[in-house]
Amino acid sequence: MIEPFITLVVATALLLGSPGPAPLALAATGATFGRRKGTPFLIGVLVGLTVAIVGAVVGLSTLFAQFPYVKSIVQYAGAAYILFIAYKIATAPLEPNHSETSIPDFKDGFILNLLNPKAYVAFFALFSQFLLPFPDAFLSYFATGLTCLIVAVVVDIIWLVSGGFLKPIFAHPNRAPIARLSFAILMLISVGYSLFLS
């Protein structure tokens, strides 16, 4: 049981920790607004991820297979929302006491991962390839999902905290617009790439 567990943890860390819309948004939020103000966004990202895990387990992949247009709708809705988050980060004001409404919040994080095609694809892959081998099927899916969520919590906290270390750059009047725009562009490239692969 130890070997399948380690394999699952490593695969989950690689899939969910690679630069994509959610990790880049977390890093940019931490860099722009700080770790404390970015925490509600982090919690929203993780709750949205939990819904994605449940969706993968209960058979969203079957729905997508039977109705391919639903997958396209979700993918493009997700891409549009990621564009919105990227815009919020790129256009955040430079003043330290910026408006609370400009900070990505719980709702933004939740919707971001709820509509993130990369999250669903990652969980379809994880559940089909790295399901923990318990005698009971429900226990296998539950333990696998819980393990994925725990790894995601660690990985996403690392992204938010690492972004916080970049805060001095994001607060600098000359460097901040370039840094924020760079993160926004990386977010758009990552979602465009995931749409291209799907």
Features:
198 residues; mainly alpha
User: What is the approximate shape?
Assistant: globular
Content-based structural category: mainly alpha
Radius of gyration: 17 Å
- The total of beta strands comes to 0
**Tally of helical runs:** 10
- The first-to-last residue Cα distance is 33 Å
- The pLDDT mean sits at 79
The protein's oligomeric status is single chain
Percent of residues in beta strands: under 5%
Helix content: over 70%
Which regions are unreliable across 5 or more consecutive residues at pLDDT < 50? none
Order of helices and strands: HHHHHHHHHH
The biggest sheet amounts to: none
Give the count of structural domains: 1
Q: Concise description?
A:
About 80% of the residues lie in helices and about 0% in strands. By secondary structure, the chain is mostly helical.
Overview of the molecule:
The chain has 198 residues and is an all-alpha fold. The chain has one domain. The protein is built from 10 helices and no strands. α3 crosses α7. The two termini are 33 Å apart.
List the helices and strands and how they pair.
Layout: H1 2-17, H2 21-33, H3 35-57, H4 60-66, H5 68-90, H6 106-114, H7 117-129, H8 137-165, H9 167-171, H10 176-197
Helix pairs in contact: 1-7, 1-8, 2-3, 2-5, 2-8, 2-10, 3-6, 3-7, 3-8, 4-5, 5-6, 5-10
